[in-house]
Records
---
Amino acid sequence: MDLPPFFFEVHRDMPRQGPGSDLSTRRALCLAGPLPEAPAILDIGCGPGEQTLCLARATGGHVTAVDTHQPFLDDLAQRAAAAGLSGQITIRNQSMSELSDPDGAYDLVWSEGAVYNMGFEAGLRAWRRLLRPGGVLGLSESVWLTDTPPAAARAFWDSEYPAITSVEENLALLARSGYRLLGYFILPASDWMEGYYLPIRARLAALRPFHAGDPEAEAVFAMEEREIRMYEEHGDSYGYAFFIARRDD
Ligand code: SAH
């Protein structure tokens, strides 16, 4: 996806780059069931790494965090150091479609709000080999919550991520791609608003006075505000589902 440079001005130094919360990360981890002591974890599309830190804390394991946007990775490195977690986290600038780890390297493969960059099914298929047999995948993905979404929401998703589909279809894709479902849940609205959109809205308000009349900045402000309003008006018709599944052999 091509994003204008000003997009990153809005998004830098944000706790998260998509809907989520520590509570939801921990809830998903519970559904993963018992893990080995100090599990090996891969966090794909980690962004600034809120869930990376949570995974390291909650499991006591080692998390390899990968993303392609270096400023997010720099941010994560700082946050990990400040939290005293640097020793548990390896940070790597690498594309999710070109992961170089050996087969079976991980007990847990994790990805919050990022698999859409390569597509849900493509991610499921490409990442399966990274799990040891019986290893667990946890990933969140946008879904329709109704068969009859309002036209405005449909138009929005047609332009943002036309591959968005139903929970049922994603469950079928998981089964077809070699995973057995352990559980799933829909992220609460607070994961969208408090976790993601309200910090962005505050950032927009802070930046606006400095960029009046700048067309690129104003286009980004409008795009962000449109996305937040869409959620406020039609967020009951779509959401994020967190799927937790075991590699099925
Ligand atoms: N998991 C984080 C970030 C989600 S936003 C959170 O929930 O806060 C999606 C992330 O995917 C961004 O950080 C973006 O830089 C990253 N990304 C986009 N394309 C990518 C690719 N090809 N490989 C790896 N990461 C990618």
---
Amino acid sequence: MQGRLTELFKWLHRHPETGLQEHETTRKIRETLESHGIEVLDSGLATGLIAVLHGEGEGRAAPVIGLRADIDALPVAEESGLPYASENPGCMHACGHDFHAACILGAALMLHERRREWRGTVKVVFQPAEEIDRGGLLVMQTGLTDDCRLFLAGHTSAGMPVGTLGVKEGPVMAAVDRFEVTLRGSGCHAAHPHKGVDPVPALGAVLQSLQTIVSRSMDPFAPRLVSVTHVEAGSTWNVIPETAFFEGTVRTLDAADRELAERRFREIVGGTAAAYGVTAQIGWTRGSPAVVNDAGLCALARRVAGECGLLTCLQENTMGAEDFSRYAQGRPGLFVRIGTGGTYPAHHPKFTVDPQALYPAAQFFTELAMACLRLEE
Ligand code: NI
């Protein structure tokens, strides 16, 4: 199995495709599943797919659970120097989604081979477009995962050695919101500021004040952040511009903090703009919610990891986003970190994962899925 998964992983690594372009990737996964007699559901997804496995163990029908891998790559030019490096210029599996796909495919094959040992149904999602926060919603919209009682997934972790698994109860990845603001004054000659309304001082004041959302409005014991990442105003030295623009992101782990951050943001931007005599047009886009791990599933994962010879450690929080959270809305979810070795962080052009981590991780998800089904019976 390790050999088969490594071969598959290297194929996927050589053929990366970005979000919603994963046609070859989907074809490869479908072929592999179908060649083993595993049913692929008619989901209507253009890329990505949902497979279904039925246990044939003795006893009454057991519940449905979900297992999810993401399959998309990034628009990054690979510099890993690997013999199986990307053959698609400017595109790279720099976040290990090739590993996720191979690992969960391995779990699907093993669950299928061992189908007489368990009962119930496992829906296996190979999700497109995680990096652009689209795929999770697209899969949800098929309605095919509505009957899943819980969802399981994992992510590569470059900072952790092969053979380790990061697990932690509660929020582990952030809810991600994006803002875009235009402050509108009235342009004029730089020599006659009193003839217009300059949006630039308002911009400066707003940028400073926004940092008080975290530092003054929120409990200092929990992580959250406001980052302004793009600012624009004016085009030359002697003209006061009509508008000033900025955008950025707010990241929170707690749902109440998420609401509070948006409310304070609107108050600060609106109030400061008014004080400077400019208007503010605020665009607010809610991205995926925080990834929150179910405590019971974490306990189960630790036990199963031990049985599979994996060493568990405390998963680190990150303020990054993961649309796995979409699956875990209103039902238990578990998102673990898989130690995959390597020196460079995810999204780096020299990012690598050690294929030796494939089989242990696939075995872990196989055993975990069976343990979940036994519990849910
Ligand atoms: Ni990723």
---
Amino acid sequence: MNVNRRKRYSIKYNDHRILVIDFGSQYTQLLLRRIRELGVYSELCSWNISESQVFAFNPKGIILSGGPHSVNERHAPYIPEFFFQLGVPIFGICYGMQIMSLQLGGQVTHAIVQREFGCSQITILSENVLINDIYDCVDGVTGRLTLDVWMSHGDVITTVPKGFSIIGVNKYNQVAIMANEDRRLYGVQFHPEVTHTKKGKFILERFITCICRCQSSWKITNIINNVVMDIRMKVGKDKVVLGLSGGIDSLVTALLLRRAIGRQFICIFIDNGLLLNYEFNRIRDVCAKNYNLDVIYVSKEQQFLNALIGVVDPEEKRKVIGRVFTEVFEEQIRGLVGVKWLAQGTIYSDVIESGRTFSSGKNVIKSHHNVGGFFGIMGIRLLEPIRNLFKDEVRNIGVDLGLPYDIVYRYPFPGPGLAVRILGEVKKEYCDILRKVDFIFIEELKRDNLYYKVSQAFAVFLPIYSVGIQGDRRKYKWVIALRAVETVDFMTAHWVYLSYDFLNKVSNRIVNEVEEVSRVVYDISSKPPATIEWE
Ligand code: XMP
């Protein structure tokens, strides 16, 4: 790498970083997570990243992700040629390996019969630093070592490029692992980032620590110090305003700001009337008592509910809430003197999902608290101190900074709040019913030690009148659905097998204590095809 060129860029964390090139695999986020779990900082970038951006990032190694394309498609994404001149190790996964093979002179064809999707086994043919001593079984007949892996591919490499050796093959005797030791280029046909590849994390670790020689320095104390230094450098003596949403991301952002710039910032918490009461009160307590944060609490329930009159479409509801939020926030900011920065608790999955990874060039503000209306007009700059962190990293910081466990590990609550848990038009009456029901459900989950075993649980208000009997009279009242899911990443989720006894207890309490409800149902749909929220 050209040393003079490197000097032009400031290196933010340290030199031990891995760059992941995104070819569109559904497992790319997982790949990043795995690398960071190894204590090594990594970022995702688009495959058409520029040379200067790569120099700026200064990776010790590059991983090429899998992807849905076939390398022989006309507009298939490819590896920029300068990558091969960088002199850093490159590790191609699935599509990443196939495209590397093709670009370096190998041959790849479409496997009509021998496609592989799911668990599979590969046989190791020769030694290689990438997989030495990493195996699952020894083949009883051949005495060869085998690996249990997760495959998902339609193309196969028929000829490896010059200088490469075949290290492992699949059950059809096709290339499953290849390596060019001299140039430190490696490829695997399977997905080491997926847990079904039992030894996958060891293979990734081998690449990152032995081949790239990365040190494990992405640790919570270093992360906090880096973020704090970064905030100080950017903000200087300027004043900052932070939108507190009640979620862990903005709360951790507040604590980091506190550490970085003391009282040079102010938080604004807008009560839109669509919150769960106990959540709002808990956050207020924590902010005031434990951390002495300066928070302006703005109660605008009526303004939000008025704007939602007659709105039934879920996306329209989100838009209306976003618009009113912007108006209220703007009004508050105009009343503050000398604010130069708007801080947001944007995290890395928001960045990835909105296509704002550092090479994409987009810069969209987190949509569910979209404050873009005044941003720019008022010359306020955006500050996103935790934009490079994943949720579990944010939670770890929360724990490190002393946030109570129940706050750090509470269930996610959507930005538009109860509006997406009330089907159709939102009314105060429905919000109040939902708050009472949700409280009972959550209280019982906690009482039976189920709260932390479930990833997310909540109640949904169905605007349907259903018959019930009260005293000796038939009465028509509302229906409530309960939802509880287990998930790791919230992209897929399974409904939770809550016991009949538990459901019975919750249902009895709801119909007895919330007189507006006559019927309770339990949602047994998984995602996909259903989503976690009902709207
Ligand atoms: P879905 O319903 O998409 O939910 O399966 C996945 C996760 O995202 C949360 N969610 C939202 N969060 N604004 C948010 O801030 C929203 O509009 C929104 N919709 C869903 C949901 O609670 C779950 O954790």
---
Amino acid sequence: MRAVLMGPPGAGKGTQAQVLAQGAGVPQIATGDILRRAREEGTPLGRTAQSYMDKGELVPDEVMVGIIEERLRQDDARQGFLLDGFPRTVPQAEALDRLLGTLGMPLDAVLLLEVPEEAIVRRLSGRRTCPNCGRSYHVENDPPPAEDRCGTCGAELVTRTDDKPDTVLSRLEVYRRSTAPLKTYYEQHGLLRQVAGVGPVEEVTARLRAALRA
Ligand code: ADP
Ligand code: AMP
């Protein structure tokens, strides 16, 4: 599997990508997780990314393309990969096509998770995230087994600073303006598969698996 999972913030990309990638035995490559780790570690990349992330804006394309190139050149990506959160702009998608062309590993599919904006706002306002393994929970829909501890790795859960209501609205606007045009881009490349992202997590996973097989 060499696929992209895209969709608005809060569509369930991280939740689904973790299950799909594990099932397929390929790495889940989540650019948001890579940036948050760099921010935690206080690296130059993390410091650059922080100011954009806090405002809900996109980190510049040239920075993101450099990150994804370095990651996709690692050995484990030769077996396949699932990209989560990249590409987010048409120039990023064009750079990805060029890179995958050079590496001889073109995409098989682009899955677009569709969720109405009202549901997104509810999801993000209740999201709790594991800063260690990246797993997402939701205070009502998918609570952690022990209060404020990740059920997978035991780390203390956090509320992402960019899940504040004002920042969520900015992120949705950025999605509409910069990322939604990728739908046409991938439609024209014959790769787009649209999947309803509403309903129980397991049902969405089954729909995504069916779309990957189609
Ligand atoms: P993304 O990676 O697209 O930003 P997440 O996977 O972090 O989204 O999910 C956003 C929030 O929505 C999390 O709190 C998660 O627990 C919750 N969530 C994920 N899938 C569903 C679903 N099918 N129904 C309800 N809530 C969901
Ligand atoms: P995410 O965890 O995917 O919601 O991403 C969190 C934040 O990281 C985004 O709001 C952006 O600021 C930044 N980010 C993640 N991926 C990208 C990308 N492909 N291009 C630009 N910015 C990104």
